[in-house]
Each structure stands twice: as C-alpha cells, then as structure tokens.
Amino acid sequence: MAAGELDPSSGVPLYRQIKDILRTEISDGTADPGTPMTEDRLLERFGVSRAPIRQALKELSSEGYVYRKQGRGTFPVTGPRILRPAHVRTGDLYHYLTESGLHPASIVSDIARVEPPEKMSEVLGIDPAERVLHFTRVISVEGEPLLEARIYIRAPEGFAPTVLELEESGSGFELLERELGIALGRAEHESWATAATAEQSAALGVREGSPLLVIETVFYTTDGQPAGWRSAVHRADQFRYRFVTGR
What we know:
By secondary structure, this protein is of the alpha+beta class. Helices cover 29% and strands 32% of the residues. The protein has 8 helices and 10 strands. The protein has helices at residues 14-27, 39-46, 50-62, 93-99, 118-124, 163-169, 172-180, 198-204; strands spanning 66-69, 73-76, 82-84, 104-114, 132-141, 144-153, 184-195, 211-221, 226-235, 239-241. The strands form 3 sheets. Strands 4-5-6-9-8-7 form a 6-stranded antiparallel sheet. Strand 8 and strand 9 form a beta hairpin. Helix 1 (14-27) packs across helix 3. It starts with 13 loop residues before the first helix and ends in a 6-residue tail after the last strand. This is GntR family transcriptional regulator. One of its GO terms (molecular function) is DNA-binding transcription factor activity.
C-alpha cells in the first residue's frame, strides 16, 4: 500500500485514515497552504462518500490543522499545531503527544532541591524554608520547541529521579506516584498571555516580544494536600488549550 492511499482492509475507519494522511501532509509541508481542501477534490482523490471526508475535515479543524475561509473553502495551517483536549489529565501531555504520533522530545535540566518560589509558598501555604524538588523541562514536537516548564514538587528527600528518568516518563508526578504511591487528585490552572523575554525566546526559538501563553498550575494529592506548582510557557502559535466547565 503506497503512502497516501487508503487501505479498506485495515480495520481503521476511512475517515481516520483520510485524517491521518492529510494531517501528515500538512505537518511535513507537502500540502499547499494556498490550495483549498474542497470536498470535491478529496472525493475525487480518495473515492469515498462525503461522510468520511466531512468527518476528517471536522476533526482536522477542531485540532487546528485546517481553517475555513468563508466562501473559499478549507485551507491547511502551515507548521505544527497542538491542541490539548480537556480530557488529557494533568501531567499526561507528553504521553498524549506520543500517542497522537507527534514524536515529542523532552529535555530536562537544572534538577535540584531548592526553597520554593515566594508565589508557590503563598499559594500552597507551605513553609518558605521547605526544600522542594525543582527541574526545568522543554518539550518539543517534530523538532520545534513547544513549551518550557519550571516544575516544583513536594516530595521526601529520598525521591531523587535522574534526568533520564524524568525525560522518559514525561512527568515527575508520574514517577512520584510510581515510586512512593503519592498520587495527584486535582489541579488548578491560571492562564494569561505575555511577551517572550530574551531567555524565553532562546528556549522556545521565537523572537523576543513574541506572544506566549503562560499556564500556572497548582497540584494537590488525592487527600487534598498541596503537591507542587508549575509555570509553563507555551508558544502561542502552536498551542491551544481546550477546557470544559460544569455546574
């Protein structure tokens, strides 16, 4: 089966195969951003009914890979686009990217026991002299930096993961649960836009002053104890955060 062709015998729904083919072509730059992806063109190309074509385009639109121009059609969005759905649990972004076939890479640095930042002490109500585990993580997708996160975890002194362990796990809290049985229960998020500093522009590969999305998160264990704090800076041109609310 040649690349870009459907395989009716694979058991994978046709809309999913079409979506995967188009997403790959958009991500690797094969798709022409100036040529609309009309239903008629895709019908002729794939030889299927309109239903799987429409479903594939709908999901590509919701994930940020295509956009619609009124009266002109659906167009590819150049460059990688990451949508974090509401169902992705806190700490699972790296695994979600991996399962989505986006080939993320994680680089961890600056592991140390430090006194918590003033804001963390205030938000969590902990002793400013308490030493917490700190490290910095940069996650890239398809070779492009996506976010830089500074993480602080309350954990016993004996919890001392290596750089390799943190990079392979994708989450320090996952290691904490695996090794010590301390599991996260809930997380509270605060988000705002900012302009890239010189340090952030170097880490994320953007120009100084470029728009960034900041998401600060407070973590709590299943029994309600403060577990940690994270400040993550995302490239606004690549990242969208979907959330739901209830009553």
